[in-house]
Amino acid sequence: xxxxxxxxxxxxxxxxxxxxxxxxxxxxxxxxxxxxxxxxxxxxxxxxxxxxxxxxxxxxxxxxxxxxxxxxxxxxxxxxxxxxxxxxxxxxxxxxxxxxxxxxxxxxxxxxxxxxxxxxxxxxxxxxxxxxxxxxxxxxxxxxxxxxxxxxxxxxxxxxxxxxxxxxxxxxxxxxxxxxxxxxxxxxxxxxxxxxxxxxxxxxxxxxxxxxxxxxxxxxxxxxxxxxxxxxxxxxxxxxxxxxxxxxxxxxxxxxxxxxxxxxxxxxxxxxxxxxxxxxxxxxxxxxxxxxxxxxxxxxxxxxxxxxxxxxxxxx
Length: 316
Known about the structure:
The chain is an alpha/beta fold and 316 residues long.
Protein backbone atom coordinates (compact mmCIF):
# COMPACT_ATOMS: atom_id res chain seq x y z
CA UNK A 1 0.00 0.00 0.00
CA UNK A 2 1.23 3.52 -0.71
CA UNK A 3 3.20 5.16 2.07
CA UNK A 4 3.21 1.97 4.10
CA UNK A 5 6.12 -0.41 4.36
CA UNK A 6 4.55 -2.79 6.80
CA UNK A 7 4.88 -6.54 6.11
CA UNK A 8 1.82 -8.35 4.74
CA UNK A 9 -0.76 -9.14 7.42
CA UNK A 10 -1.10 -12.61 8.89
CA UNK A 11 -4.71 -13.68 8.63
CA UNK A 12 -6.40 -15.89 11.15
CA UNK A 13 -9.90 -17.24 11.39
CA UNK A 14 -12.25 -15.02 13.33
CA UNK A 15 -13.77 -16.45 16.53
CA UNK A 16 -17.26 -17.91 16.32
CA UNK A 17 -18.45 -15.56 19.08
CA UNK A 18 -17.47 -12.60 16.91
CA UNK A 19 -19.53 -13.86 13.99
CA UNK A 20 -22.55 -14.29 16.26
CA UNK A 21 -22.23 -10.82 17.71
CA UNK A 22 -21.93 -9.19 14.28
CA UNK A 23 -24.87 -11.15 12.95
CA UNK A 24 -27.03 -10.01 15.86
CA UNK A 25 -26.34 -6.35 15.14
CA UNK A 26 -26.73 -6.75 11.39
CA UNK A 27 -30.25 -8.14 11.80
CA UNK A 28 -31.40 -4.61 12.57
CA UNK A 29 -29.20 -2.96 9.94
CA UNK A 30 -29.86 -2.26 6.30
CA UNK A 31 -27.80 -5.35 5.56
CA UNK A 32 -24.24 -6.62 5.79
CA UNK A 33 -22.72 -6.86 2.37
CA UNK A 34 -19.83 -7.50 1.36
CA UNK A 35 -4.42 -2.85 6.64
CA UNK A 36 -2.12 -1.33 6.97
CA UNK A 37 -0.10 -1.01 10.17
CA UNK A 38 -1.26 2.22 11.69
CA UNK A 39 -0.79 1.53 15.31
CA UNK A 40 1.85 2.65 17.72
CA UNK A 41 4.32 0.76 19.80
CA UNK A 42 7.61 2.23 21.01
CA UNK A 43 10.72 1.99 23.16
CA UNK A 44 11.86 5.59 23.44
CA UNK A 45 8.99 8.10 23.36
CA UNK A 46 9.24 10.86 20.75
CA UNK A 47 9.66 14.39 22.06
CA UNK A 48 6.41 16.37 22.22
CA UNK A 49 6.08 19.13 19.65
CA UNK A 50 5.99 22.76 20.64
CA UNK A 51 3.42 23.73 18.03
CA UNK A 52 0.34 22.01 16.72
CA UNK A 53 -0.48 21.25 13.10
CA UNK A 54 -4.10 22.01 12.36
CA UNK A 55 -6.16 19.13 11.01
CA UNK A 56 -7.58 21.50 8.41
CA UNK A 57 -4.24 22.80 7.12
CA UNK A 58 -3.73 22.51 3.35
CA UNK A 59 -2.21 19.32 2.03
CA UNK A 60 0.97 19.27 -0.08
CA UNK A 61 -1.27 19.29 -3.16
CA UNK A 62 -3.05 22.39 -1.94
CA UNK A 63 -6.42 20.70 -1.47
CA UNK A 64 -8.36 21.83 1.57
CA UNK A 65 -10.82 19.33 3.07
CA UNK A 66 -14.08 20.37 4.60
CA UNK A 67 -13.67 21.77 8.13
CA UNK A 68 -14.61 19.41 10.91
CA UNK A 69 -16.20 21.95 13.22
CA UNK A 70 -14.65 20.13 16.16
CA UNK A 71 -11.98 20.86 18.71
CA UNK A 72 -8.60 22.09 17.56
CA UNK A 73 -5.30 20.31 18.28
CA UNK A 74 -4.64 22.77 21.10
CA UNK A 75 -7.65 21.44 23.01
CA UNK A 76 -6.46 20.80 26.55
CA UNK A 77 -8.30 17.50 26.77
CA UNK A 78 -6.04 15.71 24.35
CA UNK A 79 -2.41 14.92 23.66
CA UNK A 80 -0.52 11.82 24.81
CA UNK A 81 -3.30 10.69 27.09
CA UNK A 82 -3.20 13.79 29.29
CA UNK A 83 -6.14 14.49 31.56
CA UNK A 84 -5.70 18.08 32.76
CA UNK A 85 -7.69 19.31 35.74
CA UNK A 86 -8.75 22.30 33.66
CA UNK A 87 -10.96 20.15 31.44
CA UNK A 88 -14.63 21.06 31.58
CA UNK A 89 -16.91 18.86 33.70
CA UNK A 90 -18.54 16.04 31.77
CA UNK A 91 -22.31 15.57 31.67
CA UNK A 92 -23.83 12.61 33.47
CA UNK A 93 -24.73 9.88 31.05
CA UNK A 94 -24.67 6.16 30.30
CA UNK A 95 -20.86 6.20 30.00
CA UNK A 96 -20.15 8.14 33.19
CA UNK A 97 -17.19 6.56 34.95
CA UNK A 98 -15.89 4.94 31.76
CA UNK A 99 -12.61 5.79 30.04
CA UNK A 100 -12.17 5.55 26.28
CA UNK A 101 -8.87 6.16 24.49
CA UNK A 102 -9.04 7.21 20.86
CA UNK A 103 -5.91 6.64 18.79
CA UNK A 104 -5.85 8.78 15.61
CA UNK A 105 -3.70 6.81 13.19
CA UNK A 106 -0.38 8.38 12.11
CA UNK A 107 0.49 12.07 12.46
CA UNK A 108 0.21 14.73 9.73
CA UNK A 109 3.87 15.63 10.17
CA UNK A 110 5.29 12.11 10.10
CA UNK A 111 6.26 12.79 6.49
CA UNK A 112 8.75 15.40 7.74
CA UNK A 113 10.40 12.94 10.14
CA UNK A 114 11.00 9.82 8.08
CA UNK A 115 14.24 8.96 9.87
CA UNK A 116 12.59 8.98 13.27
CA UNK A 117 9.49 7.05 12.29
CA UNK A 118 11.53 4.41 10.46
CA UNK A 119 13.46 3.48 13.60
CA UNK A 120 12.44 0.05 14.86
CA UNK A 121 10.67 -0.46 18.18
CA UNK A 122 9.81 -3.61 20.10
CA UNK A 123 6.29 -4.96 19.52
CA UNK A 124 6.69 -7.94 21.82
CA UNK A 125 7.06 -10.57 19.12
CA UNK A 126 9.66 -8.73 17.07
CA UNK A 127 10.58 -5.23 15.95
CA UNK A 128 8.76 -2.86 13.65
CA UNK A 129 8.92 0.75 12.48
CA UNK A 130 7.94 3.39 15.05
CA UNK A 131 5.12 4.63 12.81
CA UNK A 132 4.29 5.27 9.16
CA UNK A 133 3.03 8.26 7.21
CA UNK A 134 -0.25 6.58 6.30
CA UNK A 135 -1.93 6.75 2.93
CA UNK A 136 -3.98 9.44 1.17
CA UNK A 137 -6.61 9.92 -1.50
CA UNK A 138 -5.45 10.56 -5.06
CA UNK A 139 -6.30 14.24 -4.48
CA UNK A 140 -3.92 14.41 -1.51
CA UNK A 141 -6.29 14.20 1.47
CA UNK A 142 -4.02 12.51 4.00
CA UNK A 143 -5.12 9.64 6.18
CA UNK A 144 -3.53 11.37 9.19
CA UNK A 145 -5.85 14.34 8.72
CA UNK A 146 -8.87 12.09 8.23
CA UNK A 147 -8.14 10.19 11.44
CA UNK A 148 -7.83 13.40 13.49
CA UNK A 149 -11.11 14.74 12.13
CA UNK A 150 -13.05 11.55 12.89
CA UNK A 151 -11.36 11.26 16.29
CA UNK A 152 -12.45 14.80 17.24
CA UNK A 153 -16.02 14.03 16.21
CA UNK A 154 -15.96 10.72 18.10
CA UNK A 155 -14.61 12.38 21.24
CA UNK A 156 -17.44 14.93 21.21
CA UNK A 157 -20.06 12.19 20.90
CA UNK A 158 -18.59 10.04 23.68
CA UNK A 159 -18.14 12.96 26.05
CA UNK A 160 -21.81 13.83 25.54
CA UNK A 161 -22.54 10.35 26.93
CA UNK A 162 -20.40 11.07 29.99
CA UNK A 163 -17.24 9.18 28.98
CA UNK A 164 -13.80 10.35 29.96
CA UNK A 165 -11.96 10.49 26.61
CA UNK A 166 -8.24 10.69 25.86
CA UNK A 167 -6.47 10.99 22.53
CA UNK A 168 -3.06 9.42 22.05
CA UNK A 169 -2.06 12.59 20.19
CA UNK A 170 -3.63 15.60 18.51
CA UNK A 171 -0.95 16.65 16.00
CA UNK A 172 0.68 18.33 18.99
CA UNK A 173 4.07 16.74 18.46
CA UNK A 174 6.48 16.59 15.54
CA UNK A 175 5.88 12.92 14.81
CA UNK A 176 4.39 9.75 16.23
CA UNK A 177 3.77 8.65 18.89
CA UNK A 178 5.44 5.36 18.17
CA UNK A 179 3.24 2.31 18.09
CA UNK A 180 4.40 1.03 21.49
CA UNK A 181 3.70 4.37 23.12
CA UNK A 182 0.22 4.41 21.62
CA UNK A 183 -0.46 1.06 23.28
CA UNK A 184 1.08 2.24 26.53
CA UNK A 185 -1.19 5.30 26.70
CA UNK A 186 -4.27 3.08 26.64
CA UNK A 187 -2.79 0.68 29.17
CA UNK A 188 -1.79 3.40 31.62
CA UNK A 189 -5.22 5.02 31.33
CA UNK A 190 -6.76 1.66 32.27
CA UNK A 191 -9.11 2.30 29.39
CA UNK A 192 -12.37 0.41 29.17
CA UNK A 193 -11.96 0.50 25.38
CA UNK A 194 -9.38 1.76 22.88
CA UNK A 195 -10.18 2.43 19.23
CA UNK A 196 -7.49 3.22 16.68
CA UNK A 197 -8.95 5.15 13.75
CA UNK A 198 -7.58 4.57 10.24
CA UNK A 199 -8.35 4.44 6.51
CA UNK A 200 -6.86 1.85 4.18
CA UNK A 201 -4.78 2.30 1.02
CA UNK A 202 -5.70 -0.68 -1.14
CA UNK A 203 -6.40 -1.22 -4.86
CA UNK A 204 -9.17 0.49 -6.81
CA UNK A 205 -12.34 -1.59 -6.55
CA UNK A 206 -11.59 -2.67 -3.01
CA UNK A 207 -14.26 -0.99 -0.92
CA UNK A 208 -15.77 -0.89 2.53
CA UNK A 209 -14.62 -0.80 6.14
CA UNK A 210 -13.05 -3.48 8.28
CA UNK A 211 -12.26 -3.78 11.97
CA UNK A 212 -8.96 -5.39 12.96
CA UNK A 213 -9.02 -7.58 16.07
CA UNK A 214 -6.02 -8.75 18.12
CA UNK A 215 -4.93 -12.34 17.64
CA UNK A 216 -3.84 -14.50 20.55
CA UNK A 217 -0.20 -13.44 20.94
CA UNK A 218 2.20 -14.27 23.74
CA UNK A 219 5.90 -13.56 23.55
CA UNK A 220 8.37 -10.96 24.72
CA UNK A 221 6.37 -8.07 26.11
CA UNK A 222 3.17 -9.09 24.34
CA UNK A 223 0.33 -11.08 25.88
CA UNK A 224 -3.16 -10.58 24.46
CA UNK A 225 -4.72 -13.60 26.17
CA UNK A 226 -6.87 -11.45 28.47
CA UNK A 227 -8.20 -9.12 25.77
CA UNK A 228 -8.87 -11.30 22.73
CA UNK A 229 -12.47 -12.09 23.64
CA UNK A 230 -13.43 -8.60 24.84
CA UNK A 231 -11.75 -6.95 21.85
CA UNK A 232 -13.65 -9.27 19.49
CA UNK A 233 -16.91 -8.22 21.14
CA UNK A 234 -15.98 -4.53 20.84
CA UNK A 235 -15.03 -4.96 17.18
CA UNK A 236 -18.19 -6.84 16.24
CA UNK A 237 -20.41 -4.20 17.80
CA UNK A 238 -18.54 -1.40 16.02
CA UNK A 239 -18.81 -3.24 12.69
CA UNK A 240 -22.55 -3.71 13.05
CA UNK A 241 -23.18 -0.10 13.99
CA UNK A 242 -21.00 1.22 11.16
CA UNK A 243 -23.21 -0.65 8.69
CA UNK A 244 -26.33 0.75 10.29
CA UNK A 245 -25.16 4.35 10.60
CA UNK A 246 -23.05 4.95 7.49
CA UNK A 247 -24.79 2.66 5.03
CA UNK A 248 -21.37 1.38 3.97
CA UNK A 249 -20.88 -2.33 3.52
CA UNK A 250 -18.13 -4.34 5.21
CA UNK A 251 -14.96 -4.76 3.19
CA UNK A 252 -15.24 -6.74 -0.03
CA UNK A 253 -11.53 -7.65 0.08
CA UNK A 254 -10.69 -8.45 3.72
CA UNK A 255 -12.62 -10.47 6.27
CA UNK A 256 -14.91 -12.53 4.05
CA UNK A 257 -17.65 -9.84 3.98
CA UNK A 258 -17.86 -9.82 7.79
CA UNK A 259 -15.99 -6.54 8.28
CA UNK A 260 -13.75 -8.32 10.78
CA UNK A 261 -10.09 -9.28 10.43
CA UNK A 262 -7.69 -10.77 12.99
CA UNK A 263 -3.97 -9.93 12.94
CA UNK A 264 -0.91 -10.75 15.02
CA UNK A 265 1.55 -8.26 13.50
CA UNK A 266 0.32 -4.92 14.85
CA UNK A 267 2.25 -3.58 17.82
CA UNK A 268 -0.64 -1.42 19.01
CA UNK A 269 -2.74 -4.56 19.45
CA UNK A 270 0.01 -6.95 20.56
CA UNK A 271 1.11 -4.66 23.39
CA UNK A 272 -2.34 -3.67 24.58
CA UNK A 273 -3.54 -4.95 27.96
CA UNK A 274 -7.01 -3.42 27.54
CA UNK A 275 -9.71 -4.12 24.92
CA UNK A 276 -8.60 -2.56 21.65
CA UNK A 277 -9.39 -2.63 17.93
CA UNK A 278 -8.29 -0.85 14.77
CA UNK A 279 -10.94 0.48 12.39
CA UNK A 280 -10.13 0.96 8.70
CA UNK A 281 -13.05 3.20 7.77
CA UNK A 282 -12.71 2.73 4.01
CA UNK A 283 -10.22 2.61 1.15
CA UNK A 284 -8.74 6.01 0.31
CA UNK A 285 -7.41 4.73 -3.03
CA UNK A 286 -10.83 3.79 -4.39
CA UNK A 287 -12.62 6.82 -5.90
CA UNK A 288 -16.04 5.87 -4.53
CA UNK A 289 -14.75 5.28 -1.01
CA UNK A 290 -12.59 8.41 -1.24
CA UNK A 291 -15.69 10.47 -2.02
CA UNK A 292 -17.16 9.29 1.28
CA UNK A 293 -14.02 9.74 3.35
CA UNK A 294 -13.57 13.34 2.14
CA UNK A 295 -17.19 14.22 2.98
CA UNK A 296 -17.69 15.94 6.35
CA UNK A 297 -21.24 14.60 6.62
CA UNK A 298 -20.07 11.02 6.04
CA UNK A 299 -17.25 11.43 8.57
CA UNK A 300 -19.87 12.49 11.12
CA UNK A 301 -21.84 9.33 10.36
CA UNK A 302 -18.68 7.25 10.76
CA UNK A 303 -17.99 8.87 14.13
CA UNK A 304 -21.56 8.17 15.19
CA UNK A 305 -21.25 4.53 14.18
CA UNK A 306 -18.03 4.20 16.16
CA UNK A 307 -19.61 5.90 19.17
CA UNK A 308 -22.69 3.70 19.02
CA UNK A 309 -20.56 0.55 18.82
CA UNK A 310 -18.39 1.63 21.75
CA UNK A 311 -21.44 2.57 23.82
CA UNK A 312 -23.10 -0.74 23.05
CA UNK A 313 -19.98 -2.59 24.15
CA UNK A 314 -19.54 -0.60 27.37
CA UNK A 315 -23.18 -0.93 28.34
CA UNK A 316 -23.25 -4.58 27.23
